[in-house]
Amino acid sequence: MISSIKALVNIPSVKDENSKDTPYGEDIDKALKKALEICDNLGFETYYDAEGYYGYAEIGEGKEMLGILGHLDVVPAGELSNWNTDPFEAQIKDGRLYGRGTQDDKGPTVAAIYAVKALMDSGIKFDKRIRFIFGTDEENLWGGIDKYMEKEEVPTLGFTPDAEFPMIHAEKGLLQSKLKSESSGKLVLSGGNAFNAVPDRIGYSGEYNERLKQELDNLGFEYEVQGETIYVIGKGAHASQPHNGINAIALIAIALNNIGVESNAIKFIAEVIGEDYNAKNIFGECEDEPSGKITFNIGKLNIDENQEEIAIDIRIPVTKDKEKIVDDIKQKVKEYNIEYEEFDFLNSLYVPKDHKLIKTLRKVYEEETGKDSTPLVIGGATYARAMDNCVAFGAVFPGQEKVEHQANEYIEVDTLIEVTKIYAAAVYNLTR
Ligand SMILES: [Zn+2]
């Protein structure tokens, strides 16, 4: 198992947009072929998509199919001087296997493969087919897995070893949109870096400087002055957890609106959203039992002489209807002469607690670890969203360090072995 993980980690399978012969680059293609070769040697039937978007490895018999979704692409190593080892030459130090992809997601994927191999070696006959589906573009746009779901048989149920234990059974819908309007030409202001981040500061300089400072003092909002620019200070956070942050764009909008600056965007943000990241003025009390309240984040604001644009990120409770949410927004922004434009949407994921998949995985996890198995709810997105009846199951345990996408990414060898046992028990029970 370790040497298989090493072989995959040693292929720097980072996306290469410029490849002519492969969808995501030579190295991702090499990693895909390597994974199939490993599976082939272990006794699986393998299939390589002629276009190179995905591959799969299968064992067992029967009509139903258990899908295990892992991905073979990795994010870049980043600044090499931050690494203590070569990110693309996996090695064990002090019981930890270091290298890019050891935790996300080559290590856990290979652990699941060897879990099934252990069952095969024990002489277990599978009443369902088990299919490992290898994604090639998880870190970017999910092109590989989307192509698979379009062209191939979709598994009956499944899990992805690409997040954390015990399991994630609810992931809110993710809607990112732009709110656009004409500019009054009286304000130039921009800030925020991404839809999915609570902006931690925004700077303004111009004719309203003195009044803005005064108003920020009145409101008790934090700011600092650097030269001619006033920076309003918030607190950064992920858009799925806006309660951990303070939105600097919302603060400056409240202040600018109070001093009467003419702008549709400012007026909308100040009057409708303000500091309420649940946007009750738009959605009312929008929440449900499995996944909690809707969240609304203003990620970016861009106002120039001609146009105004607000970038928003909304996490929709799993039982709520997206179209209704969109209608609510459209109706409200119209009052401010603002147009709604969708940028991106990811469906929610929800597998109820009484579903066989959840019941089985909980039982297995409790038996193997003795730990609490209460399923998690998140605002973020895991690979499980690629298909129905699928959840993220491991491979990071509660309290363990999450080192995905970071320098010195590792997985403990002991963890790998424990994870393999859990996956073996899970596959065994899910194919009965
Ligand atoms: Zn991943």
From TrEMBL:
Keywords: Dipeptidase, Hydrolase, Metal-binding, Metalloprotease, Protease, Zinc. Pfam families: M20_dimer, Peptidase_M20. GO terms for molecular function: acetylornithine deacetylase activity; dipeptidase activity; metallopeptidase activity; zinc ion binding. InterPro entries: ArgE/DapE_CS, Bact_exopeptidase_dim_dom, M20A_pepV-rel, Peptidase_M20, Peptidase_M20_dimer, Peptidase_M20A. Residues 229-340 form the Peptidase M20 dimerisation domain. Its cofactor is Zn(2+). One of its GO terms (biological process) is proteolysis. It comes from the Bacteria. NCBIfam families: dipeptidaselike, PRK07205.1, PRK07318.1. Belongs to the peptidase M20A family. This is Dipeptidase PepV. It comes from Senegalia massiliensis.
